[in-house]
TrEMBL record:
It comes from Novosphingobium colocasiae. Pathway: Cofactor biosynthesis; thiamine diphosphate biosynthesis. Residues 14-243 form the Pyridoxamine kinase/Phosphomethylpyrimidine kinase domain. The keyword Transferase applies. One of its GO terms (molecular function) is phosphomethylpyrimidine kinase activity. Its EC number is 2.7.1.49. SUPFAM superfamilies: Ribokinase-like. This is hydroxymethylpyrimidine kinase. It holds the Pfam family Phos_pyr_kin. The keyword Kinase applies. Keywords: Kinase, Transferase.
Length: 249
């Protein structure tokens, strides 16, 4: 029996269970990791959208991180929805010098279109991008960060996700400073059940990195996990429904 990698998810709670902390816990567990959480915000949401958001205090987020790190220990970290600039900065404070892989999903807009990060919070993302092993923006988030050239100029590793793009083929491109880009292409899975794709991908990458798997292979395996979850969506909800995390292995 092997010891599971200890993965800390710092993200918001999704009451419907499709995204956020809930999706992270499911993904990490199904991939053989031990999931821990630092909840940044509580949301009232479902497949149709987000109806309410309440951020926790930065002090409470820091206390959750400290509790996990000081006792259980951490092998990798996934960062999702942050909720406020103060939380973004306190997360950066806690992670600087921690010495473990960090995957930062710069959550700005939910699948439903709800805005989950204001302008000051986006500014605070700079610190997290600088310390992250990998940042995983989707099409809209990449544009909000200034586009490919602007993100590349920061000298950070990032995965440009193509799931929100157009066309029958989805291309995800891994950019690591000093290395040639690595591209994965696959046929688009046509489904409305896409709630939590970004959360699932980033937490899967973090789990594989925490297990000692190299970044390109971690991304490759995580992409496969997301595709399995998309293909096995249970069909819940009237809008952008949740994926089938139960089928990930």
């Amino acid at each position: 029996m092997t010891t599971p990698p200890r993965i800390l998810s710092i993200a918001g709670s999704d009451s419907s269970g499709g995204a956020g902390i809930q999706a992270d816990i499911k993904t990490i567990t199904m991939l053989g990791g031990f999931a821990m959480t630092a909840i940044t915000a509580i949301t009232a949401q479902n497949s149709l959208g987000v109806t309410a958001v309440e951020a926790l205090s930065a002090e409470m987020v820091a206390a959750q991180i400290d509790a996990c790190v000081s006792d259980i220990g951490v092998d990798a970290v996934k960062i999702g929805m942050l909720g406020s600039p103060a939380i973004a900065h306190v997360v950066a404070d806690r992670l600087e010098g921690l010495g473990v892989p960090v995957v930062f999903d710069p959550v700005m807009v939910a699948t439903s279109g709800a805005v989950l990060a204001d302008a000051p919070t986006v500014v605070a993302f700079e610190r997290l991008m600088a310390l992250a092993t990998l940042t995983t923006p989707n099409v809209a988030e990449l544009a909000a960060l200034g586009g490919e050239a602007a993100v590349a100029a920061r000298g950070v590793a990032y995965l440009a996700k193509g799931g929100d793009g157009e066309g029958d083929t989805v291309a995800d491109v891994l950019h690591v400073p000093g290395h040639e880009p690595v591209t994965w292409s696959a046929s688009r899975i046509v489904t409305r059940h896409t709630h939590g794709t970004g959360c699932t991908l980033s937490s899967a990458i973090a789990t594989f990195l925490g297990a000692g798997i190299a970044l390109p292979d971690a991304v490759d395996r995580a992409r496969q996990a997301v595709r399995v979850a998309l293909l096995n969506a249970p069909g819940f909800g009237a809008g952008h429904g949740p994926m089938g995390h139960h089928a990930i292995c």
